[in-house]
Amino acid sequence: MKMPAIPALLAAALLGAASHLHADTIEYVFYDKEGIAGTETIEQDGNKVSGQLKLGWNNRRLNLDETFTVGAGEMPEQLHIEGISPFGAPVNERFSLEDGVAKWSSTDERGSAKSSGPQFYVPKSTTLGIQSQLVKALLADDDRTIDLLPQGQARLSELDQLTLTEGDRKQTIYLYAVSGLGLTPHLGWFDKEGNLFGQDEGGWFAILRKGWDRSHLEQMRERQISAADDYLETLSAEHTLRSETPILLSNVNLVDVEAGKLMEQRYLLIENGKITRISNSPIRKPGITHIDASGMTLMPGLWDMHAHLSPTDGTLNMAAGVINVRDIGNPHDTIMRIEQLYESGKVIGGDVYRAGFMDRESENAMRMGKTATSLEHAKEIVDWYAERGYMQIKTYSSMEPEWMAPLAKHIHSRGMRLSGHIPAFMTAEEAVDAGFDEIQHINMLFLNFMGSIDTRKKLRFTELGEHAHELDLESPEVGAFLDKLASKGIVVDTTTTVFSSMLLREPGKLDPEFANIVDHLPINVRRQFIGAELDVKPEHRDDYDMSAEALLKMVRKLHEHKVPMVAGTDGLPGFTLLRELELYAKAGIPNADVLRTATVQPAKVVGKLNSTGTISVGKDADLILLDGNPLEDISALRRTALVIEGQNLYRPDELYRALGIKPFHESVPVKLNGRVDVATN
C-alpha cells in the first residue's frame, strides 16, 4: 500500500525520534558509495554501556557486541567484546580493573598491569562506543592526554567545529584528532559530550548519526580531509629535502637490473630530476648536493603494483623505497585527490598509475568503484574511466562470466588493459581466453583447478587453505595452463604475502610474515599482527600450513614457466612489498629476477620503461641507496639509507620516526646544495 506523503518537518521529527530510542541510545549508519553498509547502536544506562555493530562489504561481515562500565574520569572498568571479525575469526575480548590491577584477555592476548593512575584500555577489536568513550576520557582530562593500556599515550586536539542545520534542529560538532593509536592521528566529528557524530573512513565508508540526512557528510568530509591534509603537508615540509642544485652520488655500486649485474665504483649525476651522467671516473661540479655512497648500492626505486592508496601511504612507501605505485581500486574522488597531492609535492608520495574498479551490482558487490547492472552499462563505465585517464580496468568477483569477452574487447578498443579477480563460476583459464591481460592474486591460479567456485564468498580463501596443497604442480594440466599464461603474456600479480599471512595466522600468535618489523611498530599497530584472520578449525591446521608452502611452490612454477610477474601488496604499504620480494627469493627465484618484478616489469606493464625502471642516462631519478647488495642478499632492501625521487631526497630513519616507528637503519649524511650537512650518522 502506498503511504501518504509526510511533511518535511514531521519527517525530520520522526527521524530524530528514531535515532534516540530512549534518551541514552544513539544509532549510527555506515554508508558505502551506493547505500547502507552497516549500523551500530549504542545504549547507555547509568554507567553501563552496550552496543551492537553490524557491518558488511563484499564477502566480509563484521559483527560485534560490546558491554562496558564507566568509572572515574570516564575510564572503562569492565569491558567485554565478542563477535566475528571480517574474515570469520571469532572475537572474545575482556578487560577489568579491580583494586588497582588491570587485566585483559582475548583469543590473542593476555596481560595485566598495576594501575597507579587513570589508564584507558584500548581493545584490539574496537567499536564506535569505545571510540566515543576514549574521547570523553580525553575531554575529562585537564591537558587532554591520558595513558593507555596495554601501552602508550593518547592526545586529543580540536581542529575544527561546525554547526549543522536540518529543519528546526541545530547541532554543533567538533573535529577532534586523537594521536597515539596508530601511525597518524585518527580524526572524527563529535558532539560537546564526546559522542561520535560522524566521520569519513578514507572514502570507503562514511559514518553518520542516524536521523541526520546523508547530505551533511559532504561538508563534514571536506573539512575532515582538509585537516588531515594539513597534517600530511606539515610532515612533508619537515622531511622532504629539496635539492635546488644537481645531485652527485660518488663511489656508488649500481644495480643493472636488466643484466642482473653490479657495476662497481660509479659516479652518478642528477639534474632537474633526471639522470644525466654515469661515469667510471669522478665528476666535478661545484655547489652541488653531494652524497658519498662508498660501499653502498644504488638501484631503481621499487614499484607496488597492487595498492589501494590513502594519502598517508606515500610516507610509508617512500621510507621503504617504494616510489611508483599502481592503485588497483579506489573511489574516483579519493584517488584523484591523492594523485594531485603527490604530484604537487604537498604530500610525500611518488607517481600513481590508476586502474578503474568495477563489479556487477549484487549483494556481494565490492563498492569501491562503480557497479554495473548490464553489459552495456559496464561498457559505459569503461568509457567513463577511459575519458578520465585510467590505464586499465580491474573487475571483481561478481561480474557475469558471459560479459567478459565482449567487455574485454571494448576495454582493449579504448587502449586499456583488463585485470582482476576471476568472476564467480568462471575459471582463470576461461578468463584468459575471454581476454584478461592480468590476474590478481595467487589464489585464483589454484582455484582454476578446483571446479566451479563461488569466488564472491570466503570460499576463495577457505578452499585455498584446505586444498591448495593437494594440487599436483608437476601435472601436465598445471604445466599447460602456466605455458598458456606465458605464451599470451598474461601478467600475474600474486600478492603472495597477504595470502600466506592469512593462511598462517593463528590465535594468540604473531603473524610470521611480519615478524621482522613488529618490534619496530607502535604497540596498537603491532597488536594487529597477532591472531587469526580466518576461523581455521583444528582438523584443517596442517592443511593450511601445507597450502602456505604450496603458494611458494606456485610462485616458483610461474618463474620456471616464464610467466610475467609483478610485485604487489594489497596490504600494509612499504613493508608488505619488501616481504613479497623476500618470499619470491625464498621460493627459489634468483634475486636478479626478483628485483625485476618490482622495477623493470612494472615499468613495462604501465608503458613507462622508457623513463623509469632502470638506472640509465635520461631516465627519471627514482633511486634507492642501500647498505648491502640485493643481488646477493634480498634482505638488503630493508636497509635503505636514502631515497631519491627526482630532486627530492628522503631519509627513511626520519620518516619512520615521524610515524612513531623505530628506524631499521641509519640514513646517510647529505650535504644539501653544497652548503650544510642536513644529516649526520
How would you describe what is shown here?
It is a single chain. This protein is an alpha/beta fold. Among the domains are: 8-238, no CATH class; 429-565, no CATH class. Helix content is 28%, strand content 31%. It is built from 18 helices and 34 strands. It has a 15-stranded mixed beta sheet with strand order 8-7-6-5-4-3-2-1-15-14-13-12-11-10-9, sandwiched between helices. Strands 16, 17, 18, 19, 20, 21, 30, 31 and 32 form a 9-stranded mixed beta sheet that branches. Helix 4 packs antiparallel against helix 18, helix 6 runs parallel beside helix 7 and helix 12 packs antiparallel against helix 14. The radius of gyration is 26 Å and the shape is globular. It starts with 7 loop residues before the first helix and ends with a strand. Residues 1-23 and 675-681 have low confidence and may be disordered.
Short description:
By secondary structure, the protein is of the alpha/beta class. Helices cover 28% and strands 31% of the residues. Keywords: Signal.
**Class by helix and strand content?**
alpha/beta
Sheet with most strands: 15 strands, mixed
Structural shape: globular
Number of helices: 18
The helix content is 25-40%
Radius of gyration: 26 Å
Portion in strands: 25-35%
Mean pLDDT: 92
Give the oligomer, counting copies of the same chain as homo and different chains as hetero. Answer: single chain
β-strand number = 34
CA-CA gap between termini: 77 Å
Q: Poorly predicted ranges (pLDDT <50, ≥5 residues)?
A: 1-23, 675-681
What strand order characterises the main sheet? 8-7-6-5-4-3-2-1-15-14-13-12-11-10-9
